[in-house]
Amino acid sequence: MDEQADADYPPRRAGWPQRVFYYGAAHRFCSVRVQAWDGEAGRSPLKLRDEEIMFLRDGAGSGRMTGHTLVIGAGVSGLSVARTLLQLGQRVTVLERGAAGGESSWAGGGILSPLLPWDYDEPVTALALRSMAGYADWVDGVEAASGQNVEFWRCGMLALDVTAPEQALAWCAAHGMAALRDCPGTPPLAPAVPPEDNRIWLPDVAQARNPRLVAALRAAVIRQGGTLREHCPATGVLTQGGRVTAVRTVTEDFPADRVVLATGAWSGLGLTGLAATPHVRPIRGQMLLFKLEPGTLETILYRGGLYLIPRRDGHLLVGSTLEDAGFDKSTDDATRRRLHAEAADLLPALAAAQAVRHWAGLRPGSPDNIPVIDRHPDFDNVFVNAGHYRYGVTMAPASAELLADLMDGRTPALDPAPYRWQAALTRSWEKACS
Questions:
Q1: Count of domains forming the chain
Q2: Other beta carbons less than 10 A from residue 391's beta carbon
Q3: What is the CATH number of the domain that holds 306?
Q4: Are strands 322-323 and 20-21 parallel, antiparallel or unpaired?
């Protein structure tokens, strides 16, 4: 493994999990009817970037927001909001409890789509498709601002053993998402993998090398005038007249005109004087990393909760678990062996390979994968961007756009109602599991 690739991934951890869950193909907890995309059938939202400007360009802000915004959390969600606000002319300081991008933003795989998009509720679909439509241009802007390559790659995704494939294809057609029954140049799958009857190929699905994406976002925020304070955990707030005037940390207080909470899996804990984001809790996921010959696999593979994500340099990620284990990021050998065996059942080249890394990260779990993107109910100048669960990287551009629109008083491109704080209060893990 080269030096840069080695820096992308954390060292092996030891330990045992508490509970490991495998939910259905959608990795969520209930099935609610998905409404059709309200655009023209067959007209892909992934092509809209050729017809409209998606997200903000530098200097494109309305200028209505002034003053200083404090963003708490330097994962992909917090850094994306920070960069968007900088483009709007805000002064921005980002506070991070650890290293920027050091939690779920690096721990996942960087697939830029819901795993089986037809299995999710409309709020997930709307936010994901808007992000996906402009992701390539958004990445171009991040790379230009940072001088770093995030390895965006439209490699496609081949889903195997799809339940009700005709319904899935109809959903894709209604939502303008390209879908075929099989992948041209099918990758070298194991002979035991069933034939193409239940396969769906999604050629427009892309990936980003997520550790490099958050590194580029970090650099872009700093280059564009933002201030980043790492290893600076927020502990509480100072308030006056229904507004937060400063955020307290272990070392000093940071005054701010506005505050954005983007604290990931920690959003459900809140801060002293500030209520926690409802129903957000950590859900652990274990991942394996392999090194194969470049070109061994050139598309994402997905089957029954397992995904294989190739990188262009031959690295390949295998994941993942969904574990309700609190803030414990330990890993275990039984899960490593199981993930390896299931991956080798798909891709024979992995049978003799040894995992070069094994780690766990903490997703900001939320019922139905629907985030909270809204003003905090207790304070006029506090906003929330949290609870994206498995799709924080996928939803980052559209989530930042939506939050900035709400902060700046603009009419959002998306209906904000499903992402309101009050809407989150009506969802629960108990309902989702029933």
A1: 1
A2: 24
A3: 3.50.50.60
A4: antiparallel
Structural domain boundaries, residue 33: 3-433
pTM: 0.86
DSSP three-state, residue 310: strand
Q: Which helix (H) or strand (E) segment is 260 a member of?
A: strand 258-261
Q: What would the two tokens of residue 171 be?
A: 């959903």
- 71-118 pLDDT per residue, tens: 999 999 999 999 999 999 999 999 999 999 999 999 999 999 999 999
State the pLDDT at residue 126.
Answer: 96
Alpha helices in 177-288 (DSSP H): 210-223
- Residue with tokens 């850094």, as numbered in its chain: 79
**What are the tokens at 114?**
């819901």
The rounded distance, in Å, linking the Cα atoms of 184 and 405 is 41
Cα separation, 409 vs 389, in Å, equals 27
CA distance 169 to 320: 25
First to last CA, the chain: 45
Question: What three-state secondary structure class fits 363?
Answer: strand
